[in-house]
Specification:
It contains 9 helices and 15 strands. By secondary structure, it is α+β, with helices and mostly antiparallel strands. The strands form 3 sheets. It has a 6-stranded mixed β-sheet. It has a 6-stranded mixed β-sheet with strand order 8-7-15-14-11-10, with helices on one face. A 3-stranded antiparallel β-sheet has the order 9-12-13. It is globular.
């Protein structure tokens, strides 16, 4: 049975090399690690890029130029076989989550630098093939960085805005092998929650908190993206996010995931997109629309016992609202801070 140590070492070596490289050295690092047909998916405005040189010049060079002395602060690190149904079971993905921290010294995406510490919240999945990185999904919370720079890209959110911490148990960075049965338990807990969520019952049929209690521990924490925020306990999660979210959309389509793995008490997935929904008005202070919008999401979970207890969520809200005709980044980033 694969313990994923070789695949993990490839990504750990890549992190060490990329984190230690100068901005103009990112291309050499990525070219030496990625396959010739390397595919990279990221949030708006980057979207999908192909080839190590393109990814380095389009994403890494500008980011490392803007966030000087950048370092990676890992909160979760895991690997596993892709459990998405089909012929993908042989795929091995290595996933991580944390922050890229640096001194915000140069503009990035039109965001005015602060000269102070800034933390870009991120999660990513890497598919390993022939000891190379063949594919990456790297999702990052740009509105969170904008808020650190004094901008207000969205109306006041229903949850709390925080620089979000990692797992309460501090055991999410799994460099060592984990018991396979623990990963299977985590997959089962996530599967149960997702399948239960798809029913999306009317609150008149079943109170939302009762539905949530089947999948979540009472002291759950939902670490949502900037613009929505974080919530704590089932009751506040229902009040501050799950309830408003369900009320704010119609015609919900679950598109499935590209990769879905678990190791130990942790698991996660990403899609491209995961969901397609149509706004009915009110959510995030935005108006109703008849235009369906895609949500590209990475979810990372921690299980405690048989239920889920922490969830970190990355949603490409800039892309979603752009599909609604609202350019959040374009209208906000170049506005001088007061």
């Amino acid at each position: 049975m694969n313990d994923f140590q070789r695949e993990k070492s490839i990504i750990r070596d890549f992190y060490i090399a990329m984190d230690g490289a100068r901005a103009d050295g990112a291309k050499n690092v990525l070219s030496g690690t990625a396959t010739p047909d390397y595919r990279w998916r990221g949030f708006h405005p980057f979207n999908e890029l192909n080839g190590a040189e393109t990814v380095a010049e389009t994403f890494w060079l500008p980011l490392k130029t803007a966030l000087t002395a950048m370092q990676r602060r890992l909160d979760i690190f895991m690997a596993g076989n892709n459990s998405v149904e089909g012929d993908s079971e042989a795929e091995i993905w290595v996933a991580s989550m944390g922050h890229l921290m640096g001194l915000f010294d140069k503009p990035w995406l039109g965001i005015v630098p602060t000269g102070k510490i800034a933390m870009l919240r991120y999660a990513e999945f890497h598919r390993i093939a022939d000891d190379k990185i063949a594919e990456t999904a790297m999702y990052f919370d740009i509105p969170h960085l904008m808020m650190q720079a004094g901008l207000n890209p969205f109306p006041p959110q229903t949850g709390a805005h925080l620089v979000q911490p990692g797992p309460m148990t501090h055991d999410g960075v799994m460099f060592a092998p984990q018991p396979p049965e623990e990963g299977r338990k985590t997959l089962a807990a996530i599967d149960y929650m997702v399948n239960d969520l798809k029913t999306w019952k009317d609150s008149k049929e079943e109170p939302l908190v009762d539905e949530l209690r089947r999948s979540w521990n009472e002291d759950m924490i939902w670490w949502g993206p900037a613009g929505i925020g974080a919530t704590f306990t089932i009751e506040r999660y229902a009040e501050q996010h799950a309830g408003p979210f369900r009320a704010g959309f119609k015609d919900r389509i679950f598109n499935g995931h590209v990769a879905y793995i678990a190791e130990g008490a942790y698991g996660g997935f990403f899609g491209w997109p995961n969901l397609t929904l149509t706004p009915t008005g009110g959510f995030m202070g935005m108006p109703a629309s008849e235009k369906p919008g895609d949500m590209r999401v990475i979810d990372m979970y921690r299980r405690d016992g048989d239920k889920l207890t922490e969830n970190w969520i990355f949603i490409d809200l800039l892309h979603f609202w752009m599909m609604q005709g609202v350019d959040i980044l374009g209208r906000t980033a170049k506005v001088p801070r007061t």
